[in-house]
Amino acid sequence: MASSFSVEEFIGNGILKELLPKLMEEGWDDVPTLKVMNSEDMDSLHMTVRQKDALGIRSYLHDRGLMQYADKLEDCGKSLPQLFTLSTLDLASQFDMKRGHIARFTNRTRCDDSFKIQTITARNRANTMHRDDSIPKSTSTLGSTSSNSNIMIRSRSHLRSNAASDTIEQSMIDMKIKDGYTFKGIVACEPAEPRACGCVKPPLVSDQVAPYSAIENISVQKLTPEYKIGMEPLVKTKAPPLKASELWRDKPAVILCLRRPGCIMCRAEAHQLFSRKPIFDALGVQLFAVLHEHIESEVRDFWPRYWGGVVLLDTGRDFYKALGGGKLPKEKFLSGFLLNPRAISNYKRAKCIGIGQSFKGEGEIKGGLFIVGSRKTGIAYQFIERNFGDWAPLAEVIEICTQMQQVTDVYLMLFTVSISWLLQY
User: Fold this and answer.
1) Residue 352 bears catalytic tag
2) Positive or negative: CA dihedral 363, 368, 369, 370
3) Which residues are 187's β-sheet partners?
4) Which end of the chain has fewer surrounding CB within 10 Å, N or C?
5) 163: helix, coil or strand?
6) For 66-91, what is the mean pLDDT?
7) Rounded Cα gap, residues 416 and 327, in angstroms
8) What is the pLDDT of residue 103?
9) Which of 363, 179, 128, 395 is closest to 266 using CA atoms?
10) How far apart are CA 364 and CA 4, in angstroms?
């Protein structure tokens, strides 16, 4: 029922607007993540009672596709429980709420969790996501063996919910018991919007997962190591090229492909992703950032201030071609940014964080993100930057990685049991 909203649209022009810079700074930078904020998170931001009430109202309305009433309901000064006590006549007269919308508002039995990976369901309805629904139900049950890990992730990230597993279960992985398991993957991208009153058509994106063969033999070069004190001199050391498959030989990897390290939107995306590194460490997932050109001053400004992990150079731009379905995804600045309201909104979102920027280098090649399983298990997820500055939602990325860990734990458990059984006989 919920539609795709930017954080700015979700917050509106009311009492929450003054919190926007702080929310962005603390990583509450997409709607699904914002909606899982608990009382402890709210207190850490020093939110007032009215601000907490406003967030509760907007989350409830967003779940039910009733955001057109958010400003009026927030302005009345009532909390969500108080609004539930109003009669049908009051809702219609005070807030101009239509009868069908009143029924939806008062039907609390349809109680969506604040977080159900709304972006996945919204994109599916818009036909912008390709997914496979054939994951066996038994896998979800077996995956509960890693509950200790899940408890740790819930306590650190606040991004888990009971409903999230069911949503991912339908959009994740067709498994084949052969050399482990094989990911078939899902593709995600933000919706396309009309540009210049419909005169400019948004670019088409591939809805097919890139074949594993398209990325496993890519030649990359490490430009930086993972940051630790005293590692700066190693940035000047030229590392030999290596095959991309070496990166995820032992552990799954998140591969963030950036348009330009000096771009304010790319820096903001990299910063908000790397700030969750403890979560990915707990899941056993590595983080890599990929550039398609090497400008030493830009790398120096980017690492480690905005990204403290390994930075890779893809001179052949093959990761980017894989995202584009075999073609380099490019768009001109005029049509892709100046005439694109969504890209401008992405720019404003990044600017709110207070990040600096530069304008060196090629900025028209679009990027995205891959989640790749260990060894040759394949691509579990890829996000395509349709509009300049689109970010892969952190909630989705963490959910996919969590599911990968569960599947891995299941196979390790089965392998251990099988070995023990064989040794007994």
Assistant:
1) no
2) negative
3) 130, 382
4) C
5) helix
6) 90
7) 43
8) 85
9) 363
10) 25
Cα 2 to its chain centre, rounded Å, is: 17
Quick one: average pLDDT of 187-197?
A: 81
What values do phi and psi take at 13, rounded to 5? Answer: -105, 20
Average pLDDT over residues 72-97: 90
Mean pLDDT of 211-227: 94
First to last CA, the chain: 55
The Cα 377–Cα 370 span in angstroms is 13
* Known catalytic membership, residue 111: no
CA-based nearest residue to 400, from 184, 175, 168 = 168
Q: Flag the least confident range among 124-133, 299-308, 387-396, 400-409.
A: 124-133
Spot the catalytic one: 76, 111, 197, 263: 263
pLDDT one-digit tens code per residue, 109-139: 444 333 333 333 334 433 333 333 332 333 3
Could you please report the per-residue DSSP string of 357-404? ----S---B--EEEEE-STT--EEEEEE--STT----HHHHHHHHHHH
Q: Which residues pair with 286 in a beta bridge?
A: 253
Q: What is the pTM of this model?
A: 0.58
Whether the CB-CB separation of 309 and 287 falls below 8 Å is answered with yes
Contacts of 362 (CB under 8 A, 6+ apart): 259, 260, 292, 293
Kind and range of the H or E run holding 348: helix 341-352
When the pLDDT of each residue in the chain is averaged and rounded to a whole number, the result is 78
Residue indicated by tokens 């369901």: 121
Please report, as a single letter, which amino acid is at residue 158.
Answer: H
Question: What percent of the chain lies above the pLDDT cut of 70?
Answer: 75
Pick the catalytic residue: 76, 189, 199, 266?
Answer: 266
Half-sphere exposure of 48 (CA within 13 A, CB side): 9
